[in-house]
Every structure is written in C-alpha cells, then in structure tokens.
Specification:
CATH class of one domain: Alpha Beta
CATH superfamily of one domain: FAD/NAD(P)-binding domain
Distance between the termini: 28 Å
Number of helices: 12
Largest sheet: 8 strands, mixed
Structural class: alpha+beta
Number of strands: 20
CATH architecture of one domain: 3-Layer(bba) Sandwich
Strand order of the largest sheet: 6-5-14-15-16-13-17-20
Radius of gyration: 21 Å
Shape: globular
Bound molecules: adenosine-5-diphosphoribose, P-hydroxybenzoic acid
Length: 389
Amino acid sequence: MRTQVAIVGAGPAGLLLSHLLHLQGIESVVLERRDRDYVESRVRAGVLEHGTVEMLRETGVGARMDAEGMVHEGTILRFDHHSHRVDFRELVDRTITVYGQQEVVKDLIARRLADGADLRFEVDDVAIGGLDTDRPTVTAGGETLSADVVVGADGFHGISREHLKGLETVDRTYAFSWLGILAEAPPSTAELVYARHENGFALHSMRSPSITRMYLQVPADEVLADWSDDRIWSELHTRLADDDGFTLTEGPLLDKGITPMRSFVATPMQTGRLVTCGDAAHIVPPTGAKGMNLALADVRVLSHAIGGLLTDGREDLFEAYTDTALRRVWRATWFSWWMTSMLHVQGDDPFADRLALAQLAQVAASRPAAAMLAESYTGLPYEQGWSYR
Ligand code: APR
Ligand code: PHB
C-alpha cells in the first residue's frame, strides 16, 4: 500500500500534522500503538500558547477550545508568602488559554475522522525501513506501507529516533519530580499560581470551572503510595499559602500520578526521508507548559517543509527542518529550565536557592524581566506559516 506521509504516533504532534497535511491536499496514514480511549484520556499539561490557539482556530479545530477554554491574561508567582502578578496582556499584549492536552487530542481525532482520515489504533509492531531510498516504508500488522516521508511522532519512548544517523543527545535530569492531582473542586484562583515555598514548589492550575489541577515538587525517587490524599492536601495548603489569606478548596481526587522531570534534545531531527517531531525529538520539564506547544510548533514547520517537498519538489525547506525547529526548541528548553530552576527548591544547594530567590525578586521588581517571562510563556513568534501555499 502507498501513502504520501506515514505518521507513527497519534499524540498531539502526529494528529495535528495529519490535519495540516490534509488541508494542503496531502494524504497520510497515522499508526498508533494505544487505543483511542487511552490517547483521549491521558492527562497531561493544559496551557496553550497564544500562537497555538491561533493555529488551531485558523485551521478549523478550535471551536470547542474557544467555547470551553479559559483565556488567562496573566499568572501569579508566589514566593516569600507574597503574590506577584505577571500581566501578559499589559506586558506583551498576549494571552494564554487553559485547555487540556487531551481535549486538543479529542478535537483533532474527531476532525480527522470526519475528514475521512486513515487513523489506525492498537498497532503495536511498527517497524521502519527503506531509509536509504526515497520510498521509506513502515511495516505493521503484516502490512507494508510505502511513503514519500515517514514521520516519527511517537513520543519519548518511540522507535523512530534510533534510526537517525549520527544521533547526538544532550540532556539533564532533575533531582525532583512532580506529583500531579486532578480534583473535583472549583479552582481557588482565577489564574495559575506558581508557588515557591521552603518545602518545595507547588502549582495551582485548572481544567474547568469545576476541576482543579495541582502539582507538588517531590524527590525524584518518590513513591506515590507514600502520598495519601490527606498528605497531598496538607502540603498543598502549606505551599500555596500567602499573607493575604489565600484559601484552597478541596474536593475528591480524580487522578494522581508522578512525572519525572528532564530536559532532552536529540539531533538531527531527520535522516533522508525520516523526520522526528515533538517528544520523539525533545523533552522539557513541565514548568511553563511548553511540551505540547513545542511539539505543535515543530509540526507547523514540518507541514510547511513537507508541503514544499511533495507539492513542488522543493528540497530546501525540508533540508532546513532540523535547524528551523531547533532554534525554537532551544529557546523553549532554556525557558523551561529557567522556570524550573527559579521555582524549585534544591535543598542541598543553598547557593542555587539564593540565586533562584534573586531571580524571582528580579521578575517581581523589573518590568523588562517580567516581560521576558511573559514573552516566552505566551509563546515566541513563529518564523513561518504552517501552509506551504
Ligand atoms: N508505534 C506506534 N505508536 C507509538 C509507538 C510505536 N512504536 N511508540 C509510541 N507511540 C505513540 C504513543 O502511544 C503516543 O500516543 O506515539 C504517541 C506520542 O504522543 P505523545 O507522547 O503525546 O507525544 P507528542 O505528540 O510529541 O506530544 C508531545 O506530549 O508528553 C507530552 O508534554 C508533552 O505535551 C507534550 C506532548
Ligand atoms: C497544567 O495545567 O497541567 C499545567 C499548567 C502549567 C504548567 C504545567 C502544567 O506549567
């Protein structure tokens, strides 16, 4: 069987790419290991950059996001028991939208299926071949798909990255993880609160007017069983407290889990007609919620590059893909590292902790410093459009 683009992985990256290619008249097949229900209910971050929102809206998959997403014009940094608001609207004239990643995934799957896409779930034996030719193949379930381009959108644990020639990786693991909860409780704050407390970092986020999403910094080797619901709430109350009488509303927990924190960048993002994007190529720690936004920014560049290649035989955009994508990846990697270092407690490194507090004081006191945070948080401008023509 032939297709133009074979995409491995139906996370946000693979699904959006398939959609953007379709809008350019390019057909694709998406192969996903998990079942549809699993990918639609996987709880991940929930902050969409200004440009992500515009791209989803412009390409016709933003209706539910516009109806249900919560537009935020700023965020709160809390340290030394005081709150400091970073006003995105005023500083950079941008906003962010709080809307869960799995909601974006649901919207993309619904739209792809309505457009007649070939989306295959529960395909767990994908193998990539023919990489020395200009007709690479993807084999799965005894069937071989021959394509013009194969895209590895298969996340950090995928199989595509290992096929890249001359692969080099740089990474950093952090000494802490995030314990995340989803609670059936109305948010206790109108905007996200990033709190640095002596006991560690805490984040108050949300999913809807009745669902709260929160995180606690815990040691990297922490065991979830050691965290009873009571212990989680008690620690959230302590770390989120401020001198203005902030109160936290509790509710039944719907989900809890521990996520490790790492920074990771693998280059190149292409070899011949195989390319990687999203988590398959790079990971950022979740502080600042860049993961999905960065994956979708890769896809924007990639859809443009594949459009040029398959529509007009232009090799230049395709060849430039890794370099174009990596410029944004490294700036987001820096931002995510910076937010992480500034907000987490090192404990065994008093020098790092004093520097982090000085950074927070700088952001709270200096308009240029706050604008720098706001610019990256709401999303750097894109270098180019998503559509080749
Ligand atoms: N065959 C088929 N599918 C695979 C394979 C495989 N061998 N390996 C992995 N997959 C699938 C996974 O099941 C998953 O659904 O690829 C998909 C990758 O999706 P994500 O991990 O969501 O990655 P991506 O689309 O790049 O989105 C990045 O996800 O991890 C978060 O914070 C990150 O928000 C960011 C986003
Ligand atoms: C989330 O809502 O899950 C979230 C929000 C902001 C972050 C990370 C995660 O920085």
